[in-house]
Amino acid sequence: MKLQLLSRNILLALAVSGLGACGDSSDYDFSANANGTTGRGTAVARFDPRSGVIPQTNDLLLAGSTDGTLNIPTATITNPGQLGLVNSLNTLDGFGLTAPITAAFGASLKAGSLQTGSSVRVFEVRKDVATQAITGVVREVTAAELLATAVGTQQDTLALVPLKPLKESTSYLVVLTNAIQGSDGRAATSDSAYLLAKSTTALSGEYAALEPLRQLINNQEAIAANQGVSAATIVLSWSFTTQSVTPVLEAMQRQAAASPLLISPTLGASNTFVPALAGKANVHIGTLDVPYYLTAPSTANPTAPLTTAWSGAAGSFLTRYNPAPVATSTQTVPVLMSVPNASALAGATPPAGGWPVVIFQHGITRNRQDLLAVADTLADAGYVGIAIDLPLHGVTEDANPLRADKNAAFANDVERTFNLDVQNASTGTAGADGVIDSSGTHFINLGSLLTSRDNIRQGIADLLVLRRSLGNITAVPLNTAKVGFVGHSLGGVIGTGYLAAETAATPASLVTTGGGIARLLDGSASFGPVIQAGLGSAGLTPGSAAYDAFMVVAQTVIDPADPVVLGAQAAAKHPVHMIEVLGDQVIPNRVTGAPLSGTEPLASVMQLTSRTATAAGEDGIVRFNRGAHSSVLDPGVNLAVTVEMQRQIAAFQLAGGAAIAINDSTVIAGAAP
C-alpha cells in the first residue's frame, strides 16, 4: 500500500485542480455557518483522482516524494503565479496548521447538518512511515478545535476551520458521513470513484492503477470502524499530515552563538536625537555580527534578498528530516543602546552585577531608533535598552546621524535594507528612482512567500544571537542573566518566535501584535488595501476563489514562523504581558472569517488572563480603550495611554514578569472585543 505506487497520470491530474479549484470557494467566511443555500440537487462528496478532484489537504500529495516534502505535480501548470505557489508548497514537509481544510460537494449543503464529532469525524492518528497505512487512533478532534461549515457562494464546499492550531508533524484522518445533508434535506452520497475505491474487492484491469488507493481507503475505513463509524455511512475519507515547526526552531537556537558586539562611547543623551524627551538615557551605537541565512545582494544578483529562502546543506529544503539552516554570509548590522544617566530615577551608577537589559524590537517599516521612545522610561527603571533592525529594515535618511555610514568607528556595518532601490517611492511600481527604498518596504513579499516566512525566521535568529552576545559588550557593565524583551507590532510577531526558541528566562511585553499573518494583513485597515491592490494587480480579486486560495497557501507557508502557531510554546517558557488597543487599525483585534488571525487569537493560544487591575501572576493581556497602534511610542494620540503603557512595561520587567501593574484604570477596558 505504498503511495508511490499510485499512477503518475493520477498524480498529474491532481495538479490540474489547481489551488482551491475543487468547488465554488469564493466569498469564504470561515468563522460561522451561513444561513440559506442556493444550490440544487443531491450533495455528492466530490472525489475523482483522475481529474484531480480531491480534498487538497491530502497525503496523496506526498506520493513519490524523495525528501519528505509535498509532491504536488507541476508538469501541467502553465500559469507562472500558480506554479510559484505550488513550488512553495512543495518545499514543505506537510500541510498547514491553521488554514481551512476543504472538500467539495456537488450541491449546496445544509449548514445545520455539519457537525464536527457527528456528521464529520476527525481523528489524530498514527501512521506507518514506510507504507502510509494508519496503524492507530490517538484521539478524536473536537468541535472546539475544528469548525465544520459550508462555504462558497453556492454553499457547496465543506470547510474544516481550525479554531486552535493543529499539532505539528501530526497525521489526521477525516471521515465524512451521510449524516451530512444537502440543502434538499437528502443525505450526502459518495462520488462513483470513491465507491469504486472503497470496494473490498481488489481492482484489476482498467482500474488496476487505483488498487493502491483502494487499499488506502479500506485502511482508513477500517480505522474509522474501530471508532464506531460504519463503512456504509462513509461518503469520503482521507488523511493528511501537518508540517513540522519545532525542528528548524530548535536548530536555530542550537546554532545561535555569541558574536562580536561592539559598542561606542556615548553620543549624547536621548534628547540629543529626540528633543521632546527628557534625556534620561545616554545613547550608544555599535555593531553586531549575525549569520545571514537568506542571501545578500551581489553584482550577479542585486535583488537576492527579495527572492531567496533559507536552505539546508547542499541547498536542501528545511524539514523535520533536515532542519539546520546554512548561513550564506555574516552581516555586520547596526546596534543602538540606551543607558541610564544621572537624570534617571535609577541614577547613573549600575547595580552590583551590572545593568539589567531590555531587548527592544521595532515594528514594520520602522527601525531601531524606536528604542529611543522608551529609553527614558527604561532608564528610570534602571534598565539598559538595546535594539537592532529587523531584516530589510533600517535607517534610510541620508541626513540621519545614526545611519550606519555616518560613524567612521564602525566601517563595516551596513543598514539592513542593503540600501536597495528597486521600487519607485512615489508610484510603488518596480524600478529604481534614485532613492533608497524605505525601511521594511520589502519585508512582506507577496511575490515570494518563502522569503516572507524566512524574513521572520531571520529576525528570530538575529535576536537569539543578540541575546548571546550581550556578554561581549565592554563599554557598559551589563547583567546578562537579567534580560527582558519588548516587541512592538511586527516586533511582537518576531518576538513571539524568539520567545518560543529562547531557553533563558525572558519576561516579555508584546505590544499591539497578533498572529495568523495572512488574514491579519488582509483584514488590517492599514495593510489590507495594500495587500488587496497588490494581489489585484495579479488578477486576484478579494472574495474570489483564487484570492482565497492564495490566502490559504500564504498562511500554510508562513505557519512555521507564525505567532499563533508558536505562541503557546512562547508563553509556556516565559512570562508574557500583552498590550492591545481596541479598534487597532494596523493589527486588528480580530478578523471576520479568520478565527486564528489578530491579537485576540494570539492571546487565546497563549492563555493570557485579562488584567484590569494590578495583580500577581505571570501572564496577562491588558486591553486599552483609548489610544492607537503606536501609542506605546507616540503620545500624540493620547498621552495618558503612552504613559500607562510604558509604566506597565517597566513594572513588568522590575517584577521579573511576576506581576502586571496598572496605574490608570481609566484607559483600560475589561472585556475582549
From TrEMBL:
InterPro entries hit by this protein: AB_hydrolase_fold, Lipase_bact_N
Any Pfam family the entry gives: Lipase_bact_N
Signal peptide: 1-21
Single GO MF descriptor: hydrolase activity
UniProt keyword list: Hydrolase, Signal
Source species of the chain: Thiothrix caldifontis
Protein name: Alpha/beta hydrolase family protein
Gene3D superfamilies on file: alpha/beta hydrolase (3.40.50.1820)
Domain of life: Bacteria
Residue span, Bacterial virulence factor lipase N-terminal domain: 60-259
